[in-house]
Every structure is written in structure tokens, then in C-alpha cells.
Amino acid sequence: MVSRGMLRWPIRFAPAALAVLLPSLGARSAEKGTATGNLQRTGWNQYARRFMFSPTFEVVPPSGAAAFVCTISTAGEERRAESAGPRVSLAEIWEALPAGNKYAGSIEALDARGSPIGRTDLGFFKVACFAGGYRPAKCDYVVSGRKCADYVLTTLADWQGDAAPKDVRYPALFYAAYVRLLLTDAELGPGTEKARQELLIAARIGRRLIETGTPQDWAYANMPLSHDRKVLQVCRTAMVGLAYLELAAATGEEAFLEAATRVAETLRKTQLPEGRWHFRVDPQSGKMLEDYTSDQAEAIFFLDELIRRHGQRQWTAVRDRAVRWMLENPVKTGHWQQQWDDVPAQPPYRNLEFYDTVFFALYLLRHADQQNDYLRIAGELFRYVEDQFVLWENSFDRSFVAPGVLEQYLCYKPIDWHAAHFIRLCQAMHQATGDELYLRKACALADTLTAVQHAAGYYPTWMTQQPTSQPAELGQINYGDLWPNCMSYTAETMIKFGRYLQKRANSRGTTSRG
Question: In this structure, are strands 116-126 and 101-110 parallel, antiparallel, or unpaired?
Fold first, then answer.
């Protein structure tokens, strides 16, 4: 998400980079490390700019290398970490490096006599771990989410008429978010006029997605649009598929379940032998426009819902092949990249993100048992997300609202959607483990979302501020360049998280923060 143009409600917004750069999508850069001097860095974190937890740096070993030394300068002194191999961990010196500071250093390769034969420079910022006690919530989480739902509903008034409103640039991304929020909020007011309107609009949006989908004779048939009819981002079709299933449950209309089943069938037909799908394609010809994406998780989650909730076990083999590919590829390589709708192809590891990381962790947590290693893997994915994208305090950039969550390396800014996405993961981790720390982390982010929520009901997309003299204080919040899909997802998550806390409190006879 990199566009900066101001949105005009409800559905007109500034063009994004993708429209200009689509011709370059077919070229995929060869994987290369980053090099300064004559030693080349490699590994998943070669472009990382910050760490919360102790990193391990990796280099391509030159001929004759017998040892490797990482030297970090801090407060006028140097601290060294050594390794016999080309992977150097900073674990032994990490606690001696205070958080909230930027560090510079180098990695040297040494020969058997201890003489340097290669060197690369590096730099990073160390951010603080979770400490708790950041700021109180301004209101109940469910109340906060429903207040935003009220606002979003006012922007969708055109959907109550007979004429179809002008479509958005990213139909799958935006419309699925609207549908989920409207259905979530309507569930809390059954029989009310507001709920009736929400169900009406959600169903109209769903039908619009079906009506504008790809023709049956196209290579990617019966797929909801992600961009226009020339570019299809395959993972987003599963996002809409999930929305179809929610619509089927809320309205009882078989057409939505049938539409979801057609999406699944096309996913089955277009799955590559290794178990994954291309990132972006020409939906008519089937030509690949951009190959790699780590986001197979949305399809996995969608197919899993069809299997679990509707007994459509014909998708089991398709889902399982994709799961195996995920476990053998991004889980092992850390190459979590090529996911966002407005970002063209990037060299490997140049633009790491985590949206699909969370979806895959959710799947693993749902299916974790004593016979597999899913719980441990989900914990490692959680640690990756927190390490690279979560800010518990704002020393990294004083204009950032913290606690907050950053989006991707090319848009390394805190955004409300991503705070909500991490809350969702925290909730799932708590449900799977019972560890209260996950709830404390989720509540810290939810508290901040209530604190920055505009009086009109919406959350700021870009969680930035005018810095104040006290780092913990909130300055003037940036409410410009609003993305309505972001606030919709945030509101949905706040409602669901608040209800999760309420049910938990009721079962324990305690008072809920939600």
C-alpha cells in the first residue's frame, strides 16, 4: 500500500504505482545478496533495517575463510560476535546494546592466520521489546469498532439505490473488507433497521463481485476482479471467496456458496504442480505476469473453510499441496514477499511483509496437534512479525504512533490495518496456548486504536503524528489519505477481539476490557 493521494469517499481514490509499472511485472530479479566492500551478505534479513530480537547475519563465504567476526560500535566501544561459519549470531552481545538506538558495524571474514580477507558494512536500529502499560483505552473495543462501522456505512449510501456505484481500483481488497465489517456489525443488532441496511449493502456488493467476475471461457474463469480485467492477483480471489462464505451464512443465498465453489474450482485447475499459484496473471489467456508470491495462505485458509464448514472435501488435496509448499518455502527461506495490490515486482527479500504470514499462522494454529510441529512454527512466525514490523515505542521514528505495526519494507509506516492484523494473530496465539502475554500485546494495540480514533468514527490509515516533547504522549494525529478498506478491517477486528474478551470474561466471571 504505497499510494499517497487523498481518497474521496466512498470509492474514488488516487492511482497507485501498479498501473504504471505493470509492464515490468514479468521480469523477476535473480536472487542476490547485498554487498559493501568485497564480502556479500545474504539471507532473509539482508535488507532489514531494524530488529527487536537478536539477529543472525549471513554472508557468502570467500575462499580460505576460517572464521567470521561481526563488530558493532556502541557508545565509543566495540562489541564482537564471532563464528566459525558464515552465519554470525549477535545473541551474546544483544543485551549489551540498548534499545532505541541505531548501530553501525561490519562483518569480516578471517583466514586461518586471523587476517581479514573480506568485509561488509551493516547498520540497523534496535527497537524495544514489549513492556506493557502504554496508554489506557478510551472506550470499549466493540463500541469503538461499531462506531467506525457507523461511519463506513454512511460512505456506502450509494449501494442502497438501484444503480451500481462506480467500481474501486482494487475490488477484491476493498469490497471484501466492506462485506466482512457490515456482516460483523449486523450480527450485533439483529432485526434492527441498521442491520437490515448492512445486510442489504453487503449482499449487493457480493452480487456485484459475482456479476463483474471473469467469463467462464477464460483461463481463470469465474474469478472476482482484483484490479481490472487485464490483471488478476490470484491470492485476492480467495479473499473474496471467504467473503462469499460469510455472505452465504448471513443471507442464506445459495448463489454466494456457488460463487465460492467456482473460485475453488479455478484454483484447483490453475494450481502449479509444486502446490502454489502465480502471483499475477492475465486472467483471459492465463499468461503469468508475475511469478512468485509467498501468499498462498489466503487460498489455503479459504479452501480450509470450504472443507470445514461445508464438507467440500474435494479441495483437501489442493489445500494440502499448498500447505506443503508453504512449509518448504517461505517458512524455511523467510521470503515473505509479493503480496500487496499496488506494489510491482521486487528483488527477493527487498520488500518483506507479513499479511500472508499471519494467515498461514492462523491455519497452523487451527490444525496444531501433538503429531505435528504447527504450534512451534506459528510461534516462530509470530516472532518474525513482531521483530520486523511491530513497534511498542516510537524511538525508531518519533512521528510514528506507537504501539503500532508497520506494513512492508517499501512502505515502512504504521497503518491501522496492520495493527488489527497483529491483534488477530495475538488472539489466535492466546486461544491456542493460553499465554496471557498475547492478550496483553493485543490490548496494547487495541487501546491505542481507541486513542487515535477520530470523533467521526474512523481510524487513521497512516498512524503518524506531530512529535511531542514526551515520546509516550500522542501528538496531532494525521487523518489524511484515508483508505476505507483499512478502517473496515480494523473495525471488524476490534469488534471480534472485544467479543472474544467479553466471552472469556463471562466464562471466568470477570470484567472485560473489550
Answer: antiparallel
